[in-house]
Design goal:
The structure holds two protein chains of two kinds. By secondary structure, chain A is mainly alpha-helical. Chain A has five helices and no strands. In chain A, α2 packs across α3. Chain A is elongated and about 75 Å long. In chain A, 21% of the residues are buried. Chain B contains five helices and seven strands. By secondary structure, chain B is α/β, with parallel strands linked by helices. The chains are: A mainly alpha, B alpha/beta.
């Protein structure tokens, strides 16, 4: 009876830990939700207590470089990989922010100059670091992002299987 | 001789062993999640410090004269990206003036680079708060801000005598001593380069 209780306590403890693991990412996403729900602001929100910006920006370098359909496709693909430095969680393709527009313009210019996708990505990484990639490069510490969920799923499946099997074969059942 | 009946219960030490394994697996995951939850995702660590400063050739706002970073090779250079609409830039303005007045006579070059702003608004800002003792440059159709990995204004870069980005400040300088300590260390490291 005592050891049965100990086993049940152990199971409960593991279930609590599993629930905690499930809850924490949910909490994390809940914290980022307000920011994501807010439309990307065309302001340097990172460290500028911005007030009213001038309507006509003399330095607005909107994309004017004409590209072939093939290069347009590559530009869109690259834009979707690069993170907007102001709006954080969206790509420069979907962001109307000034910085994103500038970055798109740089992508188009570099494509027109004959630069490869790798060269363009390397340029932005050299300026903003790996942060600028929406999908972290698969190397070093970033590998955890790719490996950990898989390990958790496999570990969780093994745990659930063994627990269920024990419950089915236990005398109490 | 019949064997004694087996105890139906699981031995207690096994449960503790499983618990210990579970905890050993879970703790690193919780630590990782904790790190993620307590880290500001908006903080961008610039890869530029320690790397060669991106070169630029820009026009002065006042007289359209071209200025190039290459011309200042061998000098410590301070580049401040600013805009008239950014409130921290207003707070930083007197700090930069004080630092420039102290270090320009010692050979340090200062430049302001206008970011996301009109020249008329920038001029009105300078008329209101006082002129800068160094040139303000306009980006025109260049992408100097992107070259420096700009994420907002103000941002300040200090380039050493070898053309390497020695320091980056995100946000305003509240105290001229903060910039001064960086400049002092660079000037002390290579005093001859300033002559």
């Amino acid at each position: 009876m005592t050891s049965s209780n100990t086993g049940t306590t152990s199971h409960k403890m593991m279930l609590v830990l599993a629930a905690l693991l499930t809850w924490m990412p949910l909490t994390a996403s809940a914290q980022t939700t307000p920011a994501q729900a807010t439309p990307p602001q065309d302001s340097s929100s990172a460290h500028a207590g911005s007030v009213v910006e001038p309507e006509a920006l003399a330095q607005d370098t909107s994309s004017t470089v004409e590209l072939s359909p093939a290069l347009e496709k590559r530009a869109r693909s690259l834009n979707e990989q690069l993170r907007c430095p102001v709006c954080q969680s969206s790509s420069i393709e979907e962001s109307p922010a000034f910085e994103a527009t500038e970055m798109k313009s740089v992508v188009r210019t570099m494509l027109a100059e004959g630069k490869s996708d790798e060269e363009i990505i390397a340029y932005f990484q050299s300026r903003y670091g790996d942060w600028v990639m929406l999908a972290p490069p698969k190397r070093g510490f970033n590998l955890l992002v790719y490996v950990l969920p898989l390990l958790l799923v496999v570990g969780g499946a093994v745990f659930v299987y063994r627990t269920a099997r024990r419950w089915v074969s236990s005398p109490a059942a | 001789m019949t064997p004694p009946p087996r105890a139906p219960q699981q031995p207690a030490p096994m449960s503790w062993k499983r618990s210990a394994i579970a905890i050993a697996l879970v703790i690193p995951v919780i630590a990782l999640l904790w790190y993620g939850l307590t880290t500001d995702p908006r903080t961008i660590t610039s890869p530029l410090p320690g790397k060669p400063a991106p070169s630029w050739e820009l026009e002065r706002m006042d007289n359209r004269e071209a200025v190039s970073l290459v011309d200042d090779a061998g000098s410590v250079v301070v580049i401040n990206f600013w805009a008239s609409w950014c409130l921290p830039c207003r707070d930083e303005h007197p700090v930069l003036i004080q630092a420039a007045n102290e270090y320009m006579p010692r050979g340090v070059k200062f430049y302001g680079i206008l970011n996301r702003d009109t020249e008329s608004a920038a001029q009105a800002f300078l008329d209101e708060l006082g002129p800068l003792p160094y040139p303000t440059l306009v980006q025109g159709r260049t992408h100097t801000g992107i070259d420096y990995g700009l994420t907002g204004t103000p941002e300040t870069f200090v380039i050493d005598q070898k053309g390497i980005v020695a320091y980056k400040k995100t946000g305003p300088f509240a105290d001229p001593r903060e910039l001064g300590s960086v400049l002092d260390s660079l000037l002390a490291a290579a005093p001859r380069a300033q002559q």
